[in-house]
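Pipeline run #58 for the internal structure catalog. This entry was flagged by the ingest filter as a single-chain record with no existing model, so it goes straight to prediction. Upstream metadata was stripped on purpose; only the residue string is passed forward. Reviewer on rotation: M.T. Logging verbosity set to normal.
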Amino acid sequence: MSDVPAVKAALKSQAIETPSWAYGNSGTRFKVFAQPGVPRTPQEKLDDAAQVHAFTGVAPTVALHIPWDKVDDYAALAKHAQERGLRLGAINSNVFQDDDYKLGSVTHPDPAVRRKAVGHLLECVDIMDATGSRDLKLWFSDGTNYPGQDDIAARQDRLAEALSTVYDRLGDDQRMLLEYKFFEPAFYTTDVPDWGTAYAHCLKLGPKAQVCVDTGHHAPGTNIEFIVALLLREKKLGAFDFNSRFYADDDLMVGAADPFQLFRIMYEVHRGGGLTSDIAFMLDQCHNIEPKIPAIIRSVMNVQEATAKALLVDRGALAAAQRSGDVLGSNAVLMDAYNTDVRPLLAEVREELGVDPDPMAAYRASGWAERIVAERVGGRQAGWGA
């Protein structure tokens, strides 16, 4: 695609979901660093998310994490979001922070623990019904640390049984997104360690089960764009969790470690017809030392820049070079698009969307950061409790 109006139209229709937990305090396994002005309630998280959407124009939904975002009235929470120009997005389950889950959740050898975990997942579907959310996101820390600790195949049977129970509970317009992670906290075997395992379970479950690709959940050197291309081809790519990694699951701002990789991923998304509402483009990040809202704005902008460059690839020239076996010519087509400065184009897109062409500067000038520091005194700040 090289037609500028068409590129602009695609960028204007892009939607990037921000995670509620990214607005709270987070850190490494050693320390959580508190910041002034951090939200104390799910409602205040939505207030901050509304600022990101107001200054970018492309972040209209917010993912929730249960029980981190547990409230008494989810319909009221959805209304709070709507009044701020937002919608509630994916509901993320949590079966990894309870003492009962030390040896696993849905794959635990004790049937009572498995029932407890499945009960939580079904509760999340109930919350989806109340919020109007389409997606249930599942990530399991389940696995083993030592050879012989548990029966590897039996754990897969338990996983399949749990997923089937939850799948059967989904409504007609609801989906299950199965995330994978190749290690941590399970260091010998992880029950959903890679895209192939997630794909195999989703394929058996049916069309409402899709794979979620977390860009930080891969071994060094993994070709993520190949995974994306294959899952798109099989119609099993449901979502991204965008972040960056240098070493392991770092959860840094997307595009921070390897912006060229993000471009390559977005090109495969575009080439595979994935720039639609069928794919949920979500952030999953922990802003440990940087201010929360500006970091999320920057991440949204990084995704926009990678997408814009992907849209500028001359696919006709690329196909011709590929057909003729022109290795250097093919690579040059991609590099020409990647090396294009798309910031002026995105500034025009933002102006046409009715937002400031420089979201970072506009947020700094808005006074919101100073306001929340002054107003959010007392109470318990939100955080994920590492």
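catalog note: The first helix runs from residue 4 to 13.
catalog note: The longest strand covers residues 87-92.
status: ready for reviewer M.T.
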